[in-house]
Amino acid sequence: MMKRIALTFLLASTAPFALPSSPARAEHKSPLADAPAIRKRVELRDKRFEVGVGAGSTVNETFYHGVVLNGHLAFHITDWLAIGGAGLFNVTALATGFHDELTSTLKDPMGEDRAPNAAVANSGMNKPSMVLAGQIELTPFTGKFALFGGLFAHYDFYLYGGPAFVSLVKAGSTMAPACADKTMSDTTCITTGSKIGPTFGGGIHSYFNDWFGLTLDLRDVVIKDNPAGRDVNGDLVADKRDLTWSSHWVVTLGVTAFFPKADISP
Amino acid sequence: MKRRAVCLFVSILIGGAGGTGAWAAGSKDKADTKDADAAGAGAGAGADVAGGAEAPPPDISGDLDLSDNKASEDAAATIKASSTLTWQDIVVIPRKRFLKGGRFEFSPFVGTSINDILIQHYVFGLDLNFFITDAFSIGLQGDYYVKQLTDRESLIGLQYNRIPTLNRYLWSGLLNFGYVPAYGKFALFNKSIVHWEIFVSGGVGITQTEIIPRNISYEPFKTNAITPDVGIGGRFFLFDWLTVNYMFRDYIILDKYEPLTRGEPDMTMPNGVKYYSAADAKSHADGKLVNNIMFYVGVGVFLPTSFQYKTPR
Known about the structure:
heterodimer; A: 266 residues; B: alpha+beta; Porin; 4 helices; 22% helix
């Protein structure tokens, strides 16, 4: 009897505490839990076209640095994905310090060793004159920054990759014979014409406003090339068997414009 | 039976009183939460209302005099209206993620040279910085280098019958001053935010270099070269005590190279060739200013491992 009374007492006294406890706990769910990281964000890329132009230079070329002009066109399918194309055009070439030091040691007329004279060495050297690339572009990081605590700007980092068509031309004033498939005698030949290879790179947009910005870009184009036009594989002759995959790095700085007008996120 | 009925009545009374207390406590918690969130968000209207639209409105009739108090009416209206607020109605101004002033940074790093087509150096180093303020720092850097000759270097002999004149770097020690001109943040898929900063650095130090003799039978010599340096890099803030760092640094080395005429026949010299000994070669060495640009990545461990904000939200 007493046991039943105690149980009744326990249930009756604890029930009022138990019933309102569920909504009380639910009250502590913050409305910020579902909030996006950025609100009222200017959608700088989503469903917008991008057009850019700029200028730059090749990096770490062995014999000739190229000064390039570049153009870029892209459509941003989403905020982080775009499809586009780029063109880089070599407007002039400057001999590297290594080229000058090397050719200054080459004797004319040639000695009895394997060393060519400067004219022969130069006749085999080539340089990229144009790069046309199609590319998929990803923009994983976007944000804003403060410069000296006072200048604020939006920015994004992007990466891209795709195929590239590269046109190679002679770098010097004279030109050695074109590299044959196989030769038994040529010690210098030149590789010219079109090459296809992968290109990839990345860069940063820094926006002045919601449609205009600055672009810094670093690109690598990898093609089968023989920039020296000399023997590479050690058979003491120069031909197409001496082609190797070579990187051509280009850094450019330019301006870019986006259109149409940017949307604002919730 | 009568006793049972009395017990049940008493227990319901006690339970009911407890339940009212629980409701009252719930309202107080809510008010506290509201105050805290409002303070944190920096917006008085941005109250955190528990449960959103799904939660029942609180019973406040017992706390407010609704008959003749206009302020109380406004407060009641605010609370009722706020029950439908969402994250869109709350303004959030986060504080700076990381404070460095008065802290030490212990930063090991690894990297590689990027601008020499003939010889590549890998670096293993350590930065020890003290942040005088959040933006200014002073620090020491130590580097140990490992060399690797490139494919292009090996082709020079095959293609042109020449041997390049090269130096390798052994170690360097520098005193640097740093400044943080820019900081920012980025969103990862609009879900989380990562804070970062860009810093520039410059200083001076010593690099010990050693020539790689063109003729391997000749003795190399070492040079302690004065090395001004400038760099630009960044930090990504992961925790209160940990960052991921990257850096481009140009070490401007006033170096000495093996004389080009070393090894030429000279019967006036002891070994019949010019500058055979290392000391002789060094005294006739060709001086040259070299830019050794390195890129390196590392982590920054900050001590003390935590910090306190000095200003209120």
